[in-house]
Amino acid sequence: MSARFCLLVVAKAPVPGFAKTRLCPPATPEQAAEIAAAALLDTLDAVSATRGAVPVVAMTGELGAAIRGTEIGKALRGATVIAQRGWDFGARLANAHADTAAVHAGLPVLQIGMDTPQVTPDLLAAAIEPVLNGGHDAVLGGAEDGGWWALGLRDPRHAEVLAQVPMSKDNTGELTRRALTSAGLGPGALTVLSDVDTMADAERVAATRPDGRFARAVGAVAVTVR
After folding, report:
1. For position 223, what pLDDT does the model report?
2. At what angle do helices 213-225 and 29-48 cross, to 10 degrees?
3. Potential cystine with 16: which of 33, 96, 169, 218 (Cβ 3.0-4.6 Å)?
4. What pLDDT shows up at residue 225?
């Protein structure tokens, strides 16, 4: 199938002490990084299997020092990999959209993170469909903690509004929706998902996909704690 959109994953190299530190304790820094690696690998599997998607990964951190770095490197071979750039997370998101558009001009972009490893190819394809069929010029998927897990844009240049949105707040999702609306967009709402910030989040998400790498990594922490 020909390319219909870019599927942009914003990711952090799963280096112990750098990734998923809010899982510690009960996880050790190494276990938290293992969970992050599993989440990224499960996410990349879903992305690579999504029909019509051009995979793009905006990466930060040293993959050479990461848990499962070699496996992740192999998984990235089918993606366009770009470096994150910017002074804060909002700016890095905006720049990731702009850089994706520079490489794959003319394609809409659906951006996700590596905190929702429960995503499936069908879910991702359905998320961008309202943009592709002209029903909406933007879509936003809220997260249960008040943030958001997915942003789809017909014109990825509109992601510049993210540079002005406070990130990692309990109202980031609403502030993002308002910023998009103020820019003249009409964001459609996607399914609300739970992302992974705490161990309780991780266990809840793992239960939805018990056969994945993520669930096995989370389960290993539970066994150690017991």
Report:
1. 59
2. 160
3. 33
4. 47
Round to whole Å and give the CA distance between 76 and 95: 20
Q: Are strands 5-12 and 109-112 parallel, antiparallel or unpaired?
A: parallel
144 vs 29, 83, 85, 195, CA distance in Å? Answer: 25, 28, 27, 7
What H or E segment, with its residue span, contains residue 71?
helix 69-75
Bridge partners of residue 83, in order along the sequence? 59
Cis peptide before 166 (omega within 30 of 0): no
Helix (H) or strand (E) holding 127: helix 121-132
Q: Could you give the CA distance from residue 149 to residue 219 in angstroms, rounded to a whole number?
A: 23
Determine the Cα–Cα distance for residues 5 and 20; give it in Å rounded to an integer. Answer: 29
Structure tokens at 134: 């002209």
Per-residue tokens: 79: 């993606």
Burial of 3 by CB count in 10 Å (0-12 exposed, 13-18 middle, 19+ buried)?
A: exposed
Considering only CA atoms, which of 19, 25, 26 is closest in space to residue 41? Answer: 19
C-alpha to C-alpha distances, 139 to 99, 131, 169, 188, 189, nearest whole angstrom: 20, 7, 20, 4, 6
Tell me the C-alpha distance between 76 and 48, whole Å.
Answer: 10
Relative to beta strand 148-153, strand 138-143 is: antiparallel
Q: What is the mean pLDDT of each run of 10 residues along the chain (226 residues)?
A: 92 95 94 97 97 97 95 96 95 97 96 97 97 93 95 96 91 95 94 94 94 95 61
* Cβ atoms 33, 20 nearer than 8 A: yes
CA angle 163, 137, 48 (to 5 degrees): 80
Two tokens, residue 132: 């592709």
